[in-house]
């Protein structure tokens, strides 16, 4: 997504990145981007002990409010051309709809991850997953 942001910036777009504090890219390499960090409160122990589906739910629960607040603030001046978000952040669709912002979804994971996500409903139906994504 950083590569896409660079391409769009070189085409004349201003880029604002909203990212969790956890695993944030080193944006000192990209001084031409504006960065807003979301306080996610995720600890190293949670990352290492939490299974994937629960981790995604934890991210959503902790990030939805701060993300909505930042996006609402940024959209107040009508300068957002588009919201580009990772497919994992599925909750951004409702926010984009509410703020009347176009949204593009990128799936930044591997093909293997995509196939695993596609299989989740079947795995859940069979009782292999204890919580919903």
UniProtKB/TrEMBL annotation:
Recorded superkingdom: Eukaryota
Matching SUPFAM superfamilies: UDP-Glycosyltransferase/glycogen phosphorylase
Gene3D superfamilies reported in the protein's UniProt record: Glycogen Phosphorylase B
Family that this chain belongs to: Belongs to the UDP-glycosyltransferase family.
Protein name per its UniProtKB record: UDP-Glycosyltransferase superfamily protein
Annotated organism of origin: Forsythia ovata
